[in-house]
Amino acid sequence: DLEVCARNALPSDTAFWRPTTYGSITSEYGMRLHPTQNVWKLHAGVDIGVPSWTPVYSVAAGTVAALTIKASCGGNMIFVIHRVKGQYYTSVYIHLSSINVNVGDVVTKDTIIGYSGGDPSITYWDTCTTGGHLHLTMLYGRVGADYYAFDTGYYASLIDPRQVINFPARWVQYNNRT
Q1: How many CB atoms lie within 10 A of CB 64?
Q2: pTM value > 0.90
Q3: Residues near 94 by Cβ (< 8 Å), separated by ≥ 6?
Q4: pLDDT tens, residue by residue, 33-54
Q5: Angle at 133 (CA atoms; ends 127, 135), nearest 5 degrees
Q6: Which residues contact 69 (CB under 8 A, 6 or more apart)?
Q7: Alpha helices in 14-164 (DSSP H)
Q8: 124, 130 in Cβ contact below 8 A?
């Protein structure tokens, strides 16, 4: 049955999209003073300022590789593997108030995979956040195949999301996904 066999195939895509229909970059990829831990460390993605419960879309077609539920630092997380222009990538969505997908689900750029969080009064278990936002991390390769979440291979595969997604300058509001 083609439907059953195709379920495990990784869909191909040609581009990346912004994960929210509006927002602004409030924190960049790179070294920074962590707002709740008061130490300098790598901020392994970009923060997109949006209110909690804002729909979050997959940045491209892909397959949900892993979920983390209620981590004490990062809260709810979704890991999606993509193949864009023949290259494998993993996108990670952190500080979510809720998750709409399961491991193994095939998603498109139009799939609402979850809803943003980050507000400590809503995601009280997530102690590494100070307000409503989505944290987006991008990596080369496939989580669970080329490296595992948060191991040395994971950190070696990190890329600045701006390398593959068109975001405006910091603090400049956008109102579409392109």
Answers
A1: 20
A2: yes
A3: 45, 74, 75, 77, 134, 135, 136, 137
A4: 877 778 898 999 999 999 999 9
A5: 80
A6: 76, 99
A7: 152-156
A8: no
